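ligand=zinc ion
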Amino acid sequence: MEIPEQRRGPPARPAAARLTSGAALAQGPVMDDEHWMRLALDEAARGIGRTSPNPPVGAVVVRDERLLGSGWHRAAGQAHAEREALADAVRRHGREAVRGASLFVTLEPCSSHGRTPPCSQGLIDARVERVVYGALDPDPRHCGRADALLQAAGIAVRAGVLATACERLIRPFAKATRSGLPWVIAKAGMSLDGRITRPPVAPRWITSEASRADTHRMRAQVDAILIGGETLRVDNPQLTVRGLPDEEPRQPWRVIVTRSGNLPREATVFTDAHRDRTLVFTGRTLRSVLEELGQREVTSVLIEGGMRVLGEAFDERLVDQVCFYIAPLLLGGPKLVTGGQGAGSTVEAPRIVNPQYERFGDDLRVMGEVEYAKEKTD
Ligand code: AOF
Ligand code: ZN
């Protein structure tokens, strides 16, 4: 959904493409706002999983169809993407070159002091001529304020460029900001008939190597991985990020929810190098655990099973997104991937909106956001 060009203040300039001189046109295709925003999105992606409680954000500085600088928000407490990109452009081309340039950023520039000074003022001070951003900042301290601030300083503003992609990037931040709960992804590997085996044994895993490698990419993008006590007892999983090009991947929290508190003290999560990243919650509802994680600035959680925890997560409407790997084998038997009460009927069942299907080895990955049926009013 594209938010129309702002009408308040000085008229916004049309897309950069239409301002390009004939000389530049002769040199090659003209880049439009979407092109530069895609670069900003690439920058932002570098911060995924590292910026909580802040969102990942990327920015580029452009002038005369030329990329002057780029940057991304690396971690909470550090410079915002806009300041990183401006500093990069100044370092490469000098302060003068940035004057009159355009800045593309995936998120609305912030407009009041947090841990860092407001970006809107930074953009005004740098004297950029135009600011193009993707998503509105859901944080009420900033939401919708940047346009008037920038326009009052004579800067043209365009909002909503590649808004869907920019909003997708900040889903955990947006949910945590609005509800205090983290963004929850249910992850599971299963047979074609929705079963799992216990314990999973190498070399005959249910899912392919490609699926399991993908799981590590998913883990690297979240703040916490959550499992039930039974999964810990039976699988003794490591729940770490492994095998990625990143040499020192950040390890998410490992969260164990248990009814009995009866957990083996020699389990890997209590004894390995990351044991200080393991949290145990005993006798708590999943919702209250997620609320507490939200208070600890966890904005995204990957639930990796087992059946009871995933069942409760769906029954309580706590899951926002699924990531299921379905392997072409038939296990049969009683070990289902999710338990819980389940939906009373297909009408009441949660559904995946716009499911994306991707092949990983011989497996199919089904990924998408969960939509819950309306609560019954009678
Ligand atoms: C931006 N650019 O790169 C990010 C923004 O405590 P602070 O100063 O880091 O501010 C955090 C808030 O700023 C955060 O809640 C969100 O609203 C916004 N994040 N804004 O202009 C950025 N990361
Ligand atoms: Zn900012």
